[in-house]
Each structure stands twice: as structure tokens, then as C-alpha cells.
Specification:
It is a lipid-anchor; GPI-anchor. Keywords: Disulfide bond, Glycoprotein, GPI-anchor, Hydrolase, Lipoprotein, Membrane, Signal, Transferase. GO terms for molecular function: 1,3-beta-glucanosyltransferase activity; hydrolase activity. One of its GO terms (cellular component) is plasma membrane. This protein is α/β, with parallel strands linked by helices. It has two domains: 334 residues, Alpha-Beta Barrel (TIM Barrel); 106 residues, Methane Monooxygenase Hydroxylase, Chain G, domain 1 (Up-down Bundle). The strands form seven sheets. Strands 4-7-8-9-10-11-12-13 form an eight-stranded parallel barrel, surrounded by four helices. A three-stranded mixed sheet has the order 1-2-3, with no helix packed on it. A two-stranded antiparallel ribbon has the order 5-6. The protein starts with 6 loop residues before the first strand and ends in a 29-residue tail after the last helix. 48% of the residues are buried.
């Protein structure tokens, strides 16, 4: 297998000596190579009781239904910075951000301290690719693009994650949608000249599940050695090392499995709590030459309190007035381990460009197609919506719970036009549209089948007849063909004009007042190799 790539970034700020690995996109600080020494930085939201994203022991967390954006809390970032510096971290991973808020203060504070951010683009509930009912549509794409737009002015964004623990054992078809998201987000980042990496954070599992998922996310379906659909940064949420373990007992297997992996890799979460106290002795192994040719450090979980079915992962407590930080023994032990880490300062292998192999075949453990969903096309979806004789028009603003049941009612026996299958690689011509447009489509189909009887457009008061819509089945089919002329097309997505206009004069715009410029200098392109 090909050796992992070395991708360098230039940094101007002198800092602690972090070290290079072959697998990650390296950042150099005065000829010292960057290595992710991170911590998860996300206050825990309220959770939906009885709802989990995965029932395996690898994911003990309930699904949150709210979140707090830590990068919009300037006072909080200033409060926390001394403690992050005590840990000597150079990266924070943030799981949910609000694109409508101002992040200048936090991003500038962290940049001045040489701290990067890995930002997850998904949001709780309806703002992510769903494991059991996946889609890659305009609503999720636009949300991702809006977040990237807001953060693109900052110089210390290391990566954007398109998903976290979405692909699960027995539910691997969703990988096709994650890969499509990586393709489109990567194309957009290239189009705006951003060097931020496209990442994915994977749940751990048996190697028969874990390895094909990783290989699929970094493969080339076209067999032309193209990285256009590949992630740049693979994260593994790994909690194998518990208590006073050892490299041989906990990490030797995963090290061997990823020895020839073709893109950057790191532990996107680590820090087992099932054998307390957390000694953090895995830090020495993770930052050692035993792992430095493959793994590029990791992100300790978690700075803020994080309660799970297994216990408490947090390392600090914040006072009720939000002004005071109290550290725990977990924090002190991690601080001790992070502070004594002395990894290599130069790569053990020469720099090389990544190669992108063919995609793994399907088997009993992995069932994702190399045929990916198309790029969501907002213009085509809106064009088609304007032709519907029956529209979804709910009388309430909180209508997310209505869409699924109403689609099931309107579809009847088949929803092929709005659905997709990540295993067969077949996607309906409206599979990339917003769920509300998909619902309007199915309601209109039902309306047409019932002779355009106004009562057949009611759907319990949630539908409205559009007198300007296409009249008759033939006209509706012609409109569909005209609006969605290339249903399988892929292209470089663009920021929705409504968001670009709305943000042009705000503190979150690209012309905002305090773009971070002091610490972490701009990264260079992800595919550029720079040797010293």
C-alpha cells in the first residue's frame, strides 16, 4: 500500500514543538511540524430522553435537541483560554455552531494563542445527514455552506467535518451520502480558495466495519486517482485505551490496520472513562514514534461536562454565572501528560502526494455504492416547486414533525422520485430537494391522480391549491423534465444568494471587523507539498 501523505501548512507563530506524521496535513511552526494536540470544546445540549443515535457501547450519548455555540461566547473563550493553554492544546473541536452569530472574538482569541478549530458542520435533529433515512439535499448543503461562509475569513480553521458517527454497523449505505457531501464541500472550498480540510469523524468498531468505511471515504469511484470525492482528514473516535493499558493491548491493531491509509488520520475523540480514574497514559503512545507514521495526534474528550450512560467525560465545571472555571483531577492528569509529551519533530518519511485507490466492494459488513447522490440543485428544485398545482402550506411554523407522515400519506406505495438508495446507487430526480419541496411534489402527484379535486390537496389543512401550477399530468411531467434536466449532475455548489445578501453587512460577513490575523497564519492549499 502507498505510504500516507505529508501535507504541510505554513504558520508564522512560534509555539510549543508539535510533531509531524505522514498521515496528517502537517502544519509547520518554524520548521517544527504540527501535530493535533486537541480537546473537544462543546457544552452539552439538552437531550431527547430515550433517543440514541446508536445503541452500541461505542456511542453512549443521547441525541441532543439543542446546542450552545461556544465560539459565539467571546467572554467564555477568554475565560477558558488560560486553561486551554495550561493543557498546551493547539486545536479545539467544536461540534455545533450557529452561522447567524458573531464568532470574531473567540476565533481571534484562539488564533492569537495559536489554537486551531475543527468545526463540525452538522446541527442536532434536522441539520445533519440522517443515518436511518439519509439524504443529501439543498437544506443540508445550504446550511453547511452558510457555516463555511461565516468561518472562511478566519485563519485558524483547520477542518470542516461533514459528519460525526453517521455511518454505523449495519447502516453503511449512508456512507454514499457522506461521500457526496465531502465531494460538494470540497469543491466549494476549492472554489473560494480555502485551504481548510474536509473531514469526517467515525465511530469505532470491528475492523470489518471500520476499515472499509475509512477506505471508502478516501477512495476514487472514477478509478482515475482523483481526490475530488475523498475526505482530506479522517477522524476515529477511539476509546480503546482504558486505565493503565498499553500500546500493544489497545493501539497496535488500529495502528496496523491504517498503516497504508492514504489521507490524514487522527483520533477525533479519545479518553475512556469505563476504568476510572482516567490516567491519560494513552497520550504518550499516541504522540510517540510507534504511531507517528499513521496517526496525527488526537482530541481529548471533553473540556466541558459531558454526561453519558457510561458516566461523566467533562474535565471542568463552569460556575452558574459563567465566570469561573473549576478543573477536575481528569484535567490535571491530562495536563501532566500533554505537557511532558516530546514527540519527534521531523517526519520519518519523505513527503508524497496522496493516491486515491478504487473503492472497496460491497459485502456483508459494508454496503455503500460507488455511485453517489448528485449535487443538490436549489434552482432546479425551486423551478419545479413553482409548477406544482398543490403546495405544502402548513398553518404552523414548527412543521418538521408533519413532513414524514404526510409524505407517507401522499406517496402511497412509491416515493422513488424523492428517495434514494445508497446501496444500489439509484437516486430519484428530486432526492436532492428540500423535504418541504419533496412533500409538495408528492402532494401534487396525489392531487393530479385525484383529478385535481381541491379536497385532495387539503391533507388536513396543510396543503393549498396553486392556481398558477401546471395543469394536468402531461404538463406536470413536462415541467419536471424542463426544471430537472440533469438529475444526476455534479457541479460546484454556490452560496445561496439570500444568505450572501443577508450577511454582507453583518458582523459575520467576510468584511467583518476583527478577522483573526495574529497567531495562526493562513493555511496553504491542501494538495500543496512544502518541504523545508
Amino acid at each position: 500500500m502507498a505510504k500516507p501523505p505529508t501535507i504541510y501548512f505554513i504558520l508564522l507563530l512560534a509555539a510549543s514543538c508539535f510533531f509531524s506524521v505522514e498521515a496528517i496535513s502537517n502544519v509547520t511552526r518554524r520548521r517544527k511540524s504540527f501535530y493535533i494536540k486537541g480537546i473537544a470544546y462543546q457544552p452539552q445540549g439538552t437531550q431527547i430522553l430515550g433517543t440514541v443515535t446508536d445503541t452500541s457501547s461505542d456511542n453512549p450519548f443521547l441525541e441532543p435537541d439543542t446546542f450552545t455555540d461556544p465560539l459565539a461566547d467571546g467572554a467564555g473563550c477568554t475565560r477558558d483560554l488560560p486553561f486551554l493553554q495550561e493543557l498546551t492544546v493547539n486545536t479545539v473541536r467544536v461540534y455545533s455552531v450557529n452561522a447567524s452569530l458573531d464568532h470574531d472574538s473567540c476565533m481571534s482569541t484562539f488564533s492569537s494563542a495559536g489554537i486551531y478549530a475543527i468545526i463540525d458542520l452538522a446541527l442536532p435533529l434536522n441539520g445533519s445527514i440522517d443515518t436511518s433515512s439519509p439524504s443529501w439535499g439543498t437544506n443540508i448543503l445550504d446550511q453547511y455552506l452558510e457555516t463555511i461562509h461565516v468561518f472562511s475569513k478566519y485563519d485558524n480553521v483547520l477542518a470542516f467535518n461533514v459528519g460525526n458517527e453517521v455511518i454505523l454497523t449495519g447502516q453503511t449505505a449512508v456512507a454514499a451520502y457522506i461521500k457526496a457531501a465531502a465531494r460538494d464541500i470540497k469543491a466549494y472550498l476549492n472554489s473560494i480558495g480555502s485551504s481548510a480540510l474536509v473531514g469526517y469523524a467515525s465511530i469505532d468498531g470491528d475492523s470489518t466495519f471500520r476499515d472499509p468505511v475509512a477506505n471508502y471515504l478516501s477512495c476514487d469511484p472514477s478509478n482515475t486517482n482523483s481526490g475530488s470525492t475523498s475526505i482530506d482528514l479522517y477522524g476515529l473516535n477511539n476509546y480503546e485505551w482504558c486505565g493503565a493499558s498499553s500500546f500493544e493491548a489497545s493501539y497496535a491493531g488500529v495502528e496496523a490496520d491504517f498503516a497504508g491509509y492514504n489521507v490524514a488520520a487522527y483520533f477525533s475523540e479519545f479518553g475512556c472513562i469505563t476504568s476510572p480514574p482516567r490516567l491519560w497514559t494513552e497520550v504518550a503512545a499516541l504522540f510517540s514514534s510507534q504511531m507517528s507514521d499513521v496517526w496525527s495526534g488526537g482530541v481529548a474528550f471533553s473540556y466541558f461536562p459531558a454526561t453519558s450512560s457510561q458516566g461523566q467525560f467533562g474535565m471542568v465545571n463552569i460556575s452558574s454565572d459563567g465566570t469561573t472555571v473549576t478543573t477536575s483531577a481528569d484535567f490535571t492528569r491530562l495536563q501532566a501528560q500533554y505537557n511532558v509529551t516530546s514527540p519527534p519533530t521531523t517526519p520519518s518519511k519523505g513527503s508524497s502526494s496522496p493516491t486515491y485507490p478504487s473503492c472497496p466492494g460491497q459485502n456483508s459488513s459494508f454496503a455503500a455504492s460507488s455511485s453517489l447522490p448528485p449535487t443538490p440543485n436549489l434552482a432546479a428544485c425551486q423551478c419545479l416547486e413553482s409548477t406544482f398545482g398543490c403546495h405544502f402550506n402548513p398553518p404552523i411554523s414548527n412543521y418538521s414533525g408533519l413532513i414524514g407522515p404526510l409524505i407517507n400519506t401522499a406517496c402511497g406505495g412509491s416515493c422513488n422520485d424523492i428517495g434514494g438508495n445508497g446501496t444500489t446507487g439509484v437516486y430519484g430526480r428530486l432526492s436532492g430537494c428540500d423535504p418541504t419541496i419533496q412533500l409538495s411534489f408528492t402532494m401534487n402527484e396525489y392531487y393530479e391522480l385525484n383529478g385535481m379535486n381541491p379536497e385532495s390537496c387539503s391533507f388536513g389543512g396543510n396543503g393549498t391549491v396553486n392556481p398558477l401550477g401546471a395543469s394536468g399530468t402531461a404538463a406536470a411531467m413536462a415541467a419536471e423534465t424542463s426544471c430537472v434536466s440533469s438529475p444526476s449532475a455534479t457541479f460546484v455548489p454556490t452560496l445561496p444568494s439570500t444568505f450572501a445578501t443577508a450577511s454582507s453587512g453583518s458582523g459575520s460577513s467576510s468584511s467583518g471587523s476583527t478577522s483573526a490575523k495574529n497567531g495562526a497564519a493562513p493555511l496553504i492549499a491542501r494538495d500543496h507539498l512544502l518541504d523545508y
